Amino acid sequence: MKQLSAVLFVILSFAAGCANFHAAGQVARGREALLQENPKSALAHFRSPAETDPDFYLNWSLLQEGVWTYVGRAYYATGNFGEARSALDKATSRYSWDNMAKLYLGLVLLRENDRARGLKEVDAGLLGFYDWIIYVNNYQRPDGTYWDPGGYIKQRINKTRAMIESKDASVPEIIAAGEYIGWRMEKEMDFARQQQLRNYRNGSNRGSGR
Question: Integer distance in angstroms from the first to the last C-alpha of the chain?
Fold first, then answer.
């Protein structure tokens, strides 16, 4: 009986590992499609892991972005803001640390003319990004030192948050700035890995400005 239980445990663990591996592959392919501005293709990749493993997030990414965040961002890129809001609500309810979900939920709300809540969510996402970059720069070594080494993203965040706090805040400008920061944070994942690989090949382990 104990042997049977042990065998079942191994089988189930293997199956879970395979499922997780498959989900990671699907999300990674969807992410590439999203970055290549092909949100419909991205959705096709995201839907399956979102339904079968709704708590999945990319644990190889320091951002740890949830699959429902990617679903929401893909719907957002297609202009389907109702579906985007539904997916992003799921994302924010699952992971409090998912600042990308907060940012894009705010952008959806702004596009739906919910100004007050939209500005609040965008600001929360941006502040979360800022604090997160500071944290990884100082405590997630060596990987964190490759994130925003020149401080460009932090500067853009501060500028956008100042716009939000002004009385005559321009919603279209804030939307454009928020979309850019979201894209840049996603791309920073790749920039950081590429720079780290180059430095390892050159015998160095220090971040460099971009």
Answer: 60
User: CA dihedral in degrees (86, 90, 95, 97; nearest 10)?
Assistant: 10
Determine how many CB atoms are found less than 10 A away from the CB of residue 59: 9
Give the span between the Cα atoms of 108 and 115, in whole angstroms. 10
List, as one string, the DSSP characters of 112-157. TT-HHHHHHHHHHHHHHHHHHHHHHHHHSTTGGGGSSTT-HHHHHH
Q: Measure Cα distances from 22 to 54, 161, 210 in Å.
A: 14, 38, 34
Q: Which residues pair with 57 in a beta bridge?
A: 66
Q: pLDDT tens, 87-146?
A: 999 999 988 889 999 999 999 999 999 999 999 999 999 999 999 999 988 987 677 788
In whole angstroms, give the CA distance from residue 149 to residue 41. Answer: 32
> Within the chain, what is the greatest distance between any pair of CA atoms?
71
Cα–Cα distances in angstroms (integers) from residue 187 to residues 11, 35, 36, 42, 147, in the given order? 37, 8, 11, 16, 10
**Is the entire prediction scored with pTM above 0.85?**
no
Query: What whole-number distance in Å separates Cα of residue 62 and Cα of residue 197?
Result: 16
